[in-house]
Amino acid sequence: MKIAMLARNANLYSHKRLKEAAEARGHTLDILNTLRCTVHIASHRPQVFYNGAPIAAYDAVIPRIGASITNYGLAILRQFEMAGIWSLNESVAIGRSRDKLRSLQILAKHGLGLPLTAYANDPKQAEEIIKAVKGPPVVIKLIEGTQGIGVVLAETMSSAKSVIEAFRGANVNILVQEFIKEAGGTDIRALVVGGKVVAAMKRTGAADEFRSNLHRGGSAQVIKITPEERSTAVRAAKRMGLNVCGVDMLRSNHGPVIMEVNSSPGLEGIESATGKDIAGQIIDFIAANAVSGNTKTKGRG
Fold first, then answer.
1. Which of 134, 128, 150, 133 is nearest to 260 (CA)?
2. 236: which of 54, 115, 217, 225 lies 20 to 30 Å off by Cα?
3. Is the dihedral of CA 264, 69, 260, 101 positive or negative?
4. In tens digits, what is the pLDDT along the chain, a chain of 301 residues?
5. In the chain, what are the domains?
């Protein structure tokens, strides 16, 4: 099988592990810098070019599109889909996951556990939305932030209003969420592959840090999740339309609540914490499911 990976940095742990796992199983995996891909749009001839030349035929594509180039990356991925190349996660599903508001709306529609969340455009409504999520304290986050960037804990009404007004004054879209105090600065990352939780870890934030992201100095350890947490992760992946994702949850007094569904989860932390070959499981899933032309969206937006 010949696989393409859309990724800007071939040296990241996750990308190297996926390439190693593919080659260990006799497949070929080429890492294509997403920004060096271009699309040529012509009737009935969808093509992707790489460094100015038409790409070779691939059986599958693994999108590892950085958040900073989401729109460009999705345009490239749609062109792969229109050419009938099977994608591990399809463009529409990734687009949903990258928009925090849209993803929360989808998950809420299907009854999945979420923290109380409010969204408003007018900074004059700041106090109203803070009270709507039973704050302060409240968590204020950018709609398109990743890895804990653009996430602020505001502990008083005045500080929360100031942060909201500052973000909106800069024309930045934000969500305001209830602060789950009982989570104690920890969260759960459940890694879903093909509708199954294949690994889970508990992440704990660094000292004086309420965010538990490993990129922000947090630590990880293997954890046994409850049947309810497992079901929540699987249902979240299904509703988002993602074959592979990391589902981040907090343990609240009323059960697991989903913070985010990550369509390009990092593998280093969870493989190190659990000792599992997650990259190999992803490649095995691709080998078992990649069929030319078998894309749900076929490039539709």
1. 150
2. 217
3. negative
4. 999 999 999 999 999 999 999 999 999 999 999 999 999 887 777 789 999 999 878 999 999 999 889 999 999 999 999 989 999 999 999 999 998 899 999 999 999 999 999 987 777 788 899 999 998 999 998 876 555 577 889 999 999 999 888 888 888 888 899 999 888 888 999 999 999 999 999 988 766 655 555 555 567 899 999 999 999 999 999 999 999 999 999 999 989 999 999 999 999 999 999 999 999 999 999 999 998 656 665 444 4
5. 2-89+285-289 (3.40.50.20), 96-113+182-263 (3.30.470.20), 117-179 (3.30.1490.20)
